[in-house]
Amino acid sequence: MSEAATRPSANAGALLASLDPLLRGWLPRQRWFAGKGRPVTGFGLVAATELLPPGAEPGLLHLLIRVHQAQPSTAGDHELPADCYQLLIGVRTELPPRLAPALIGHVTGGALAGRTVYEALHDPRLAALLLERLRVPGRLGVLRFARAEGPSGGPTADIPSGLAPRALGAEQSNSSLVYGDSFILKLFRRVVPGVNPDLELPLALARQECRRVPPPAAWITAEGAGGAGAGGAGEPLVLGVLQPYVAGATDGWELALQVLAKGADFSEEARALGRATAEVHAALAAALPTVTLGRAQVELLACRMTERLEAAARAVPALRPYAPALRTAYEALADLASEGGAGLTAQRVHGDLHLGQCLRAPSGEWTLIDFEGEPARPLAERRMPQPPARDIAGMLRSFDYASRSAQPTLDAPRAGAAPPPWSSQWADTCRAAYCAGYADADGHDPRKSPVLLRAHETDKAVYEAVYEARHRPDWLPVPLAALDRLATDASL
Q1: Cβ distance 275 to 438 under 8 Å?
Q2: Are 481 and 420 in contact (CB under 8 A)?
Q3: Tens digit of pLDDT for each residue in 32-63?
Q4: Rounded Cα–Cα distance for residues 277 and 434 (Å)
Q5: Would you call 268 exposed, middle or buried from its count of C-beta atoms within 10 A (0-12, 13-18, 19+)?
Q6: Which secondary structure element, helix H or strand E, spans residue 26, and what is its range?
Q7: Helix/strand/coil (H/E/C) assignment for every residue in 420-481
Q8: How do beta strands 237-244 and 250-251 pair?
Q9: Degrees to nearest 5, angle at CA 348 with 343 and 353
Q10: Domain boundary among 244, 278, 300
Q11: Are 391 and 397 in contact (CB under 8 A)?
Q12: Which residue spans within 343-454 are E strands per DSSP?
């Protein structure tokens, strides 16, 4: 490989200037772009590496850029920090028709004048190069390619050469490539300095020989890119993780919708999911520290939930009539503090568990994936120990979402009125089966901690209401119906 292909780009600033006009229009259209609704005002270069030089045909550029945007009116006088994004840019003289959907644009000036740039992950030749880099650990500019090692120091997984890549399309906050139905490479788009839970937790679970989570085989980090975020100087950026691909698997959301369409029962699958969740929680508790929550910690937990409710009520007017009754869920949680926390424990958890984060293999076994947590939350918060009830509540809400999705129309409940006509029997059966399955493996039925479970489910539904109001207003009735129930029924 030539020297030009193994060094950071010497003309990185000129490259970014050349791409600037095209990126301003292209970035906001990407599903993984977090700053929708705010104009892009400029870019800052964090790092640029030539995986293949722009003079090659095709070329491949790896960019880490800060994206500056106009601030929302709610931001006040202070400037919000710029987000850092990972981009993989293909460069060609002419784009073949098969790659037309990947087009970013035709460069008219600067270092790339006269060339065509495009999303490289849709080009099999360039996607294959990423796997080849992961097969051989080493550094390229700021990029570091690492392999998981076993006790003897050798790699834990054989990564064959020549596996055909294909890009997955149904992603939101990241992008994924599948290689020959053997491995899947998840590439993080919006990146922050520090340890990403989607690498940290599967590695910890692999040490516990937990078979419910695919173990990382290799990963990509950026080192020496401290300009990627405030307070992150010196910390690496986790850019991508390669894991075994569960070939032929169906994600839990799609499977649940298929069952609903047939009017069939899902309780056995829900019970198996409960067992799988408990097994993962047990392995995480064995691998990483757990804490017993004292009075101050329980009060703080309830206080933060209350703050999120108050912020949500300001942002979502339809939620406001329920807020006083919902606040009682958090007050009941705070009351546990007077009992010394009632023995509540916290540990590392999945953080964003729902049916779409679970895969059912053809063998019938359930696997949990995507341990990144809620990407909108700060990394430090996502890495904090949490009560396992957080994950359980997320799955309970997911059963509700699946059941409600079968309803032809979603009519918002009026404040003080009953929710729209809808049978909750399917969701209730799944919820009960999931909790029973959790108890099968853990020995404790989550329903025996109703105060903790109600508080977390309320907190999750409040989060959903804000998300739906901003991104999918037609779905807002789903969390509102749940909040109506949670506001009137303290027993869940």
Answers
A1: yes
A2: yes
A3: 998 888 889 999 999 999 998 877 899 999 99
A4: 9
A5: exposed
A6: helix 12-26
A7: CCCCCHHHHHHHHHHHHHHHHHHCCCHHHCHHHHHHHHHHHHHHHHHHHHHHCHHHCHHHHH
A8: unpaired
A9: 105
A10: 244
A11: no
A12: 345-346, 358-360, 366-368
Longest Cα–Cα distance of the chain, Å, equals 70
Rounded to an integer, what distance in angstroms lies between the CA atom of residue 48 and that of residue 53?
A: 11
Q: Which of 207, 234, 189, 209 has its CA nearest to residue 83?
A: 189
User: Which of 244, 246, 200 has its CA nearest to residue 383?
Assistant: 200
Q: Which token pair is 187?
A: 């590439």
According to the 3-state scheme, what is the secondary structure of 38-102?
CCEEEEEEEEEEEEECCCCCCEEEEEEEEEEECCCHHHCCCCCCCEEEEEEEEEECCCCHHHHHH
Query: Of the residues 200, 221, 244, which one is the last residue of a structural domain?
Result: 244
| Cβ 257 vs Cβ 197: under 8 Å | no
Q: What are the tens digits of pLDDT across the range 10-39?
A: 467 788 889 999 999 999 999 899 888 888
Domain count, the chain: 2
pLDDT tens-digit readout, 161-179: 999 999 987 667 899 999 9
153 DSSP assignment: S
| Contact between residue 27 and residue 67 where contact means Cβ atoms under 8 Å apart | yes
Domain of residue 226, residue span: 3-244
Indicate the pTM of the whole model: 0.89
| Assigned token pair, 92 | 């060609």
Check whether residue 17 and residue 142 sit in a common domain.
Answer: yes
In this structure, the answer to whether residues 427 and 374 fall within a common structural domain is yes
**Start-end of H helices in 97-196:** 124-135
179 to 86, 145, 183: CA distances (angstroms): 20, 17, 5
Write the burial class of residue 267 (CB in 10 Å: 0-12 exposed, 13-18 middle, 19+ buried).
Answer: middle
322 & 342 share domain: yes
User: Can you tell me the distance from the alpha carbon of 171 to that of 163, in angstroms, rounded to the nearest whole number?
Assistant: 22
User: Is there a single domain that holds both residue 261 and residue 195?
Assistant: no
- 3-state class of 78 per DSSP? coil
